Amino acid sequence: MEAARAETPPAAEGCCYHCSLPVDPAEEIHAEIEGEPRGFCCIGCKSVCEAIYAAGLQGFYQRTPEGTPLAPPPELPRELALYDLDEVQEEFVASLGDVRDIHLLVEGIHCAACVWLIENTLRSMPGVELARVNLSGRRLRVQWDNGRLRLSAIIQRLGRIGYAAVPYDPEAAEGSLKRENRHLLYRMAFAGFSMMNLLWISIALYSGADQGEFKGLFHWVGFCLATPTLIYSGQPFFKGAWSGIRNLHLGMDVPIAVGASITYLYSVYVTVSATAVGEVYYDTVVNFLFVILVGRYLEAISKRQAVASTQRLLDLQPRVATVLRDGEERIVPIRSVKSGEVVLVRPGERIPVDGVVLEGSSVIDEAMLTGESEPVVKGLGAQVSAGTINGHGVLKVEVRGLLRDTALGRIIRLVEEAQASKAPIQCVADRIVPWFVAVTLTLATLTFLYWVNSDFELALMAATAVLIITCPCAFGLATPMSIAVASGLGARHGILVKNGEVLETLSSINHVVFDKTGTLTEGRMSLTSVRTASGQWRRGEGRAGAEITDLIGRLAAVERYSEHPVASAILDLADEWKLERVPVEEFENHPGYGVRARLGGIEIAAGNRAWMKGLGVALNPEFETVQEGLDRQGIGSLHLAWDGVEVALLGLEDRIREGALPLIEALKADGMQLTLLSGDRQGTAEAIARRLGGMEVIAEVMPEDKDRVIARLQAGSHKVAMVGDGVNDAPALVRADIGIALGSGTDVSIASADIVLMSSELRKVRLAVALSRRTLRTIRQNIGISITYNVIMVPLAMATFVTPLVAAVSMPVSSLLVIGNAARIRTLFRKQS
């Protein structure tokens, strides 16, 4: 391993062996590393170096770019033990299970060698299951077994090898992004200052001073201005180019660095040799550095504005809450509020938590969550969400969810993941960029060789122009910019997209499958009739007799443990009749089939006919005729059995959801194939389909068969999107090419889906499809913009019609066009509003 270290030149005498910074001999700290005496600037560098060698990771020094000074180890966060507390970790980890996943913001990462060192160091720690570094974002994702390893130990281990890490906070990351943009602005300003001064030198030389006695003086003044500009303002390009070359991944910084270096070195040669033949091009170097930095800065600002949806969502989360403790109102930080406490929300305030209204009533503006501008009335027992705005009333809310566990927190997490994801088309673009740069270098070389025999300076300027004007940046920006804009705008309008691949896949969907209950229908069923062997009851007749009242009371006791819309209908009627709810035993929920429990020694089962047969229930043949009549009206039915004997048949009606008919008509007009998938009887499902204008119906489908139906459609070359909302839809949502869940659905269905419609408005299904198609079209347009730009500009540069300065002005154009074109996606929502 010492031989590997030797491949990298040792630190110069008087410099720290680890960070290469100058060391005062009087303060130098000595240590023996691998049998060789080494000098360090501080205890921190000595400890880091010893830790790296002790772990057998001295290859880090070999991978570090030559001449690149490493920063001394940053100061570790104080009170590391706090990060081991579940109360602290719950703000940053997805779940507090045995295996946890966290993103850390790491200070001190500067190159691919750092990535290699961090990942290999952590992977060697028992308990670490995953360590992955995002170099551009300086973020580290760690997955670890909390039972075997503490988070503080991971952060301490990073500190020992020279990196300070803290849990990733989007606000901190936003501040980091602002700092990077500020540094870019400083470099641009420095280059602008030098450019303005060099213009006076250039005017003098072009006016005849290049023939006089002051020619050499002007050349040296130009050298003094251009040299610090190249070193300071050009540093990002040289750093990026060197990193790309070392990692065999050529980026746009390579041709910029090569072009600037060659032009500068030729000018230095003319200056030092004082040759009468040849001109200096310091002004060209500084001018195109300035123009490119202007372009980069505009790109950074535009990108930040385009993807600022996450920050706007974060701004919706109140930082403090008014908590009622010991009968007193206390304003406390939101992070100190605990689940189960009661918060007070005054008129006009944002609700700070997810919770349930205990007292008061008001109208709530939920536009940030659902995209709907119409306020919603909330009263006792209603659920409210963090970030929504309270209207005219005062509310007391019991806390049910905080920060990451609120609906707003989940939206932010989904948007961040979508913006960080890659669509398949982006992977192709990423593979093209290195080849694109290689072709650029080849064309620049051929251009120089073609013109060098006629005019060396002309050849140099033409080759430099080719290096500068080619721009694969649009390939790199085409997909991430479009996905970031689309996912951010979608979130603001109640359409949550979980990753970039979803947008690309959704654009190619040709078959949409709808669950019936709760999707095409409202999912708020009402009990319309009850038929027993000795009598019947219909809605509108008032309270039923003792027999049916007793049936409903017992059934409500069982159904209160279910979340199915049928259960809600029965419980609503029981509440209307003010029936007492009694406890049950041995409750079993069979999604898509029914429920079963014991009450007072009687086994009660309620569900569909097929399930009753499976349980061996003795069915009443009279109910078969009644059920057929209900089917023809599009009314569902529920069979009720006591101790294995059918005792009643209940009629349940679910109204068609508002917007269902226009959606079906619009999708048909778009050429989509449509299927209604239901667990109801064939007649009931077909009646609903007829009311919606007709579509294929697949009825009497058991929950475990729903995903088989989707698989069968996919086997027939269909690209299938499944729209559902219930627990029994989850397997089908996962199986489908795209799963779309309604926000009113269950947590399981929402977790299984690729797209979540927060407002449960069906029209947004079509809007999501339109968003995906617009996004993919925008990506293709952006790639086309880049190709067209280069096809036109590169031949002009090779033919010497474009100077390096003009090339520098033109180079950012394609990137800015890509950003502007991506921003046009927002016009889709203006048309819909």
Automatic annotation (TrEMBL):
Positions of transmembrane segments: 184-205, 217-238, 250-268, 280-298, 432-452, 458-478, 782-799, 805-823
Is Metal-binding given among the entry's keywords?
yes
InterPro entries hit by this protein: ATPase-cat-bd, ATPase_P-typ_cyto_dom_N, ATPase_P-typ_P_site, ATPase_P-typ_TM_dom_sf, ATPase_P-typ_transduc_dom_A_sf, ATPase_P-type_domA, HAD-like_sf, HAD_sf
The record gives the membrane topology as: Multi-pass membrane protein
**GO biological process annotations for this chain's record?**
copper ion homeostasis
> Where does it reside?
Cell membrane
Extract the GO molecular function terms from the UniProt entry: ATP binding; ATP hydrolysis activity; copper ion binding; P-type divalent copper transporter activity
Domain HMA spans what residues? 100-166
- Pfam families tied to this protein: ATPase-cat_bd (PF12156), E1-E2_ATPase (PF00122), HMA (PF00403), Hydrolase (PF00702)
What GO CC annotations are associated with the protein?
plasma membrane
Keywords from UniProt, A to Z, are: ATP-binding, Cell membrane, Ion transport, Magnesium, Membrane, Metal-binding, Nucleotide-binding, Phosphoprotein, Translocase, Transmembrane, Transmembrane helix, Transport
Q: Which family does it belong to?
A: Belongs to the cation transport ATPase (P-type) (TC 3.A.3) family. Type IB subfamily.
Q: Read off the PANTHER family from this record.
A: ATP7, ISOFORM B (PTHR43520), CATION-TRANSPORTING P-TYPE ATPASE-RELATED (PTHR43520:SF5)
NCBIfam families, per database record: ATPase-IB1_Cu (TIGR01511), ATPase-IB_hvy (TIGR01525), ATPase_P-type (TIGR01494)
Question: What's the protein name?
Answer: Copper-translocating P-type ATPase
